[in-house]
Specification:
inorganic pyrophosphatase (n-terminal core); 17% strand; 343 residues; 2 domains; 13 helices; globular; Diaminopimelate Epimerase, Chain A, domain 1; alpha/beta; five-stranded parallel beta sheet
């Protein structure tokens, strides 16, 4: 795993933020279909910039301007604008939790039109596409990097910023269950909680709140899950898919499907889990998870996406069976590369 940002990288990031006037146009961007880390890191940093007196801060993400229900009401939500209303040529663009330019969708041109582009991310597959990159694959979440940058900028940690960063940290560590949960993660969580936020209420909103229609939808989609014990060189894969018709039939929005992977990855007989969510007639947003035996980021990168060892994703095209065929093939290739002596 590569090292995190060098001191020169931190210095360049500080200069990028400190060097702009109070009326500079700042655009914050996270990846398509934002999760808790992407949205929480972006809004937390946006609030931090406001604390520095920077007035013209806006935040956005590609695709429909739809925040998942469990993430609505976060502090800083007023900073959000639809992608269609995002400043076309900001003075500074800051990207969050995106491993590659492709995750920025129709907003990718801001990397060129902005005076300077700053990238904050924790995925090992990050392509370093910014003018200034703060990328740390050792960080449990992008929010860890955001916290460090805000600290270096001298922004005091308050309850609003802390709530955003806590949501980000909690979701990307699986509520502090994943391998990335280190002593440093718990120390950061303790600092955030010390501001007065209420982790119990936050957790209920994020993990235990779902429309009844989504519950019915999940039941149907889980009912078509398939277990393939021989996949991933015998380590096992479980997969399922959700279609646009499923969403219509149950009256649900696409964002409710972001939590579906958690109900699939618990399968005891499979190291790898895969959920394909249809986004158009022949296109799928594919989520991959691993319990550790397989590096799913290698699979996602090979298929045009990105991520890290335990969680990754890509955009698949064609029939769902063809897309899953591609995942199987890349799983075998990734294992052969990592274990060259394996038959």
């Amino acid at each position: 795993m590569s090292a995190g940002p060098a001191e020169a990288d931190w210095a360049a990031a500080l200069a990028a933020v400190r060097g702009i006037p109070a009326d500079a146009r700042i655009l914050l961007v996270c990846h398509v279909n934002p999760d808790g880390d992407a949205l929480g890191s972006m809004l937390g940093f946006g609030l931090g910039l406001r604390r520095l007196g920077l007035r013209r801060v806006r935040a956005t993400f590609p695709g429909p301007p739809e925040v998942p229900e469990t993430l609505r009401g976060l502090p800083g939500e007023e900073l959000l604008v639809p992608a269609t209303d995002a400043d076309p040529d900001p003075n500074l663009v800051v990207c969050f939790d995106a491993a590659s330019e492709s995750r920025l969708g129709e907003l990718v041109d801001r990397l060129v039109t902005a005076d300077i582009a700053l990238v904050l991310d924790h995925h090992a597959s990050n392509t370093r596409f910014g003018a200034v990159n703060l990328v740390d694959p050792r960080a449990a979440a992008t929010s860890v990097i955001v916290d460090e940058l805000l600290t270096r900028l001298g922004v005091p940690l308050d309850a609003e910023i802390a709530e955003c960063l806590y949501v980000a940290l909690s979701t990307d560590t699986g509520s502090f269950r994943f391998e990335a949960t280190t002593p440093a993660v718990h120390r950061l969580a303790a600092r955030l909680i010390a501001t007065g936020i209420r982790p119990g209420e936050i957790s209920r909103r994020i993990y235990d709140t779902r429309p009844f229609g989504a519950v019915r939808l999940f039941g149907e989609v889980l009912g078509r899950a398939r277990l393939e014990p021989a996949a991933a060189a015998g380590r096992g894969m479980v997969w399922t898919y959700a279609t646009l018709d499923d969403l219509v039939r149950h009256g649900q929005r696409p964002c409710v499907l972001e939590a579906l992977i958690d109900s699939v990855r618990c399968t005891a007989e499979a190291d790898v889990s895969c959920v394909a969510k249809q986004t158009s007639r022949d296109e799928w947003a594919v989520s991959l998870r691993s319990k550790g035996a397989v590096d799913v980021s290698r699979v996602a990168v090979a298929l045009g996406g990105g991520g890290h060892r335990f969680a990754a994703g890509f955009t698949g095209r064609g029939a769902v069976e063809q897309m899953v065929d591609g995942v199987r093939a890349e799983l075998d290739a990734a294992l052969l590369d990592s274990e060259p002596g394996r038959p």
